[in-house]
Amino acid sequence: MLGLRHYRGTAVDLFQGDITSFVCDAMVNAANTSLRGGGGVDGAIHRAGGPSILEECERIGGCETGQAVATTAGRLPAKKVIHTVGPIWRGGHEREAERLQSCYQSSLHLAAASNLLHVAIPSISTGIYGYPVAEAAKVAMQTIRSFCDDRPQALRRITMVLFDSETYKAYQKALFACFPEAEGDET
Ligand code: ADP
Predict the structure, then answer these.
(1) What is the pLDDT of residues 34-86, one digit of tens each?
(2) Annotated catalytic residue: which of 42, 149, 150, 185?
């Protein structure tokens, strides 16, 4: 398979397609602070999952940038949706990388704490929020690697689900740069 690494007991892989039809335990949503739904992947997740997701989001009331909260997954092929709020890209001088890193960290810790062992994540912040995809892919992969260092075997599989081929290629490059071990290697 193109784009698979095994690292410290967790498989890290890439899939090109629509996250709303991807079977997993925790489906991560690139939400906004209001948690009221929006465009891009957020809109797609709410449309496919149905109104129970929004109802729970409204009860929670909101989420800060870099944080993550879990709700029901409604009709989606997942046990839970984890909503995380990525930073809006403002040129790179407003701690965007740190806040994007926090999104991945919070989402992965929340999944592990809830025993959701297969996590699917879209490319947070690189759509409407304008984060340059090559930079965002590096942050994603470095954060996934440090999570696996800190919490070996806490998750079984982390899949980055990328919508288009340009985004897929950027994450593939970052995956190989961050996990240079040969495919299938267990380190
Ligand atoms: P943000 O507001 O965090 O930038 P977007 O939803 O606008 O979030 O974009 C984030 C990424 O999600 C982009 O790469 C976009 O192409 C992708 N995306 C949009 N719809 C889907 C989907 N159904 N499944 C997976 N990725 C999607």
Answers:
(1) 999 999 999 999 999 999 999 999 999 999 999 999 999 999 999 999 999 99
(2) 42
CA distance 83 to 154: 20
Residue 187 falls within a domain, yes or no?
Answer: no
User: If you take atom 1 of ligand 1, which residue's CA is the nearest one?
Assistant: 125
Q: Which atom of ligand 1 is nearest to the CA of 123?
A: 11
Instruction: Report pTM.
Output: 0.97
Is 42 catalytic? The answer is yes
- Predicted confidence at residue 187, as pLDDT, reads 46
Tell me, what CATH number does 72's domain have?
Answer: 3.40.220.10
30 touches ligand 1 (CB under 6 Å): yes
